[in-house]
Amino acid sequence: MIFIITHNGMLGLRLRLYLLLGVMFGIIYAIAVVLLPGGTFISYALLASFFLFIQYWIGPKMVELSMRVRYVSEHEYPELHAMVEELARKAGIPKPKVGVSSLPIPNAFAFGRGVKDGRVCVTEEIMRLLTKEELKAVLGHEISHLKHRDVVIITMLSVVPMICWYIAWSFMWGTGDSRERGSSAYIGMVAFLLYFITNLLVLYASRIREYYADYGSVKLGNAPHHLASALYKLVYGSARMPKEILRPMEGYKAFFLNDPSKAHHEIYELRHIDLDMSGSIEREELLWLRDKKVRVTFTDKLMELFSTHPNMLERIKHLAKLSA
After folding, report:
1. What is the reported pTM?
2. Where would a tag sit more exposed on the chain, N or C end, judged by fewer CB atoms within 10 A?
3. Does 269 participate in catalysis according to the annotation?
4. Residue ranges of the domains in the chain?
């Protein structure tokens, strides 16, 4: 079996990320030069950086507690440890800690302060749902997040909307005479608009990183149809969950492999890919999708703008382009 990596597509994703970084820091430069005096801007930047620094250091512990993570030994889960160790070796990074989450949904996630502090976790439900090959493809996706330092990148980008928020909050309620209040309100409204725009750009960066992690999993030797099948099963598994269970997961979905809150909608988009109705996506089905034109509605495109994850149909189509 041969897997053809579409380098042009990957270069396109990388170029988009570089352009995004340029736009974000261009906005920061504009705020520093046009909207605010140097000293004022520096104070807001330091304040935002301070809070992100605190989040950066206590974040892993917060994730562990909120996601009910229990780190497991090789003796408890030898096969899971073996897969993580093999993928980490192929990726050229230290083996991350391996954890199991008791959250009642099928999913996986990675987090940590950096490559040397990486943690890869799976829920008990996902281990019951996926085959060995599908689980390995999922772990490859998470290992790729660690290798690409996605947590650090998204954290850095998040500084920009945070600065905009502090500026908007301060200047919208400015004091002084009418002329000063008018000028402050103008700066506040511009800052709030930039806060909205930069938040969308951070979400866009998150979606790019998901595509890139999918590519990373394939590059580590996992078959594209195994990852596509895993994504399909995760959507189906989440769609079967009662809304009462999914609702508390809203705050965690940025960490997950897919967005559980969109599963009910996504399952209708994906059902026609499973041609033989087997509950999984085989290689032949993914190859069939590769030559088909994917149509995403305007509503779906609008929903994607406010999501940390790409449209699932387009994401699986992207995996189809990686296979041959």
Report:
1. 0.87
2. N
3. no
4. 7-321
